[in-house]
Amino acid sequence: MMKGLPLKIKNISRKGSNVVLEKHLFLTIIVVVIITGSLTITSFSTSATSALCTYVTGADTGSHSSTFNSQVDALLHYATSRDIAQQSHDEIFLSLNVLRSLAPCNFLVFGLGYDSLMWAAFNPRGITLFLEEDIKWVHKVLSRTPLLRVHAVDYDTRLSDADGLLESYKSVKECLPPRVSLRGNVHCRLALSELPDEFYNKEWDVIMIDGPKGYFAAAPGRMSVIFSAAVMARGRTRPGLTHVFLHDVNRKVEKQFAEEFLCMKYLVKAVDRLWHFAIPPAKYEDGTSKLTFC
Description:
The protein has 294 residues and is α/β, with parallel strands linked by helices. Helix content is 40%, strand content 12%. It contains 10 helices and 7 strands. It has a 7-stranded mixed β-sheet, sandwiched between helices. Strand 2, helix 6 (135-144) and strand 3 form a beta-alpha-beta unit. The chain crosses the membrane at residues 24-44.
């Protein structure tokens, strides 16, 4: 069809076709969520979920109509903008299936992007919190989707520290079970010790790790995030598992730290560059704690 066109025009055409295809797939996912959500939302009790409201709806999140409207807002946003998902179609559906089975739930997302409104819409009437290190990026995203629940955070690690952190953490007793904790744990460099209270005050049912940046030496890297997700999952007191999704596992640091702290025995499924872990609380039936992460 493009035979005879100059090479530059051919490349532009192909790129445009890919964007259109990705956009169609992205919108299809949102539509599926709205349809299935509208069919199942009446099964949720308003009284049982009044404490788990999604910030995306912005108003009366206890009503079925406002939840539906928030998903429609997401569809309208993506249908009228050039924003597309940062994960692949198959990766998105892996997380969506878990969120759909748990919603409304507590959903923690490391990283903020143009697909953040989509993630919030996937957790109707639940708490969805985003943590992002780049304050300029926070302002840019919120200028387009102002109702997202976001905290700007600082990380004191660098990707170049990764090897040293992995080698040295076992010599720091505050990094090891059963004493390991997060809030105020300034002795363990891998612990996220100074985040907003909301981070510590909730038990997170689903944790998505798609940030902070981890592709150049001076970037924060995801070492402390992966470690802290493991600590939170192990310390869970509510019934059930903690589902942790780690993106970019094709990279060395993500893979190494996942194997060390999230544990391959808890790996449920791998799709493209996304790994799904289902991690139980670190308690034996007699109440004693495990002494290692894996």
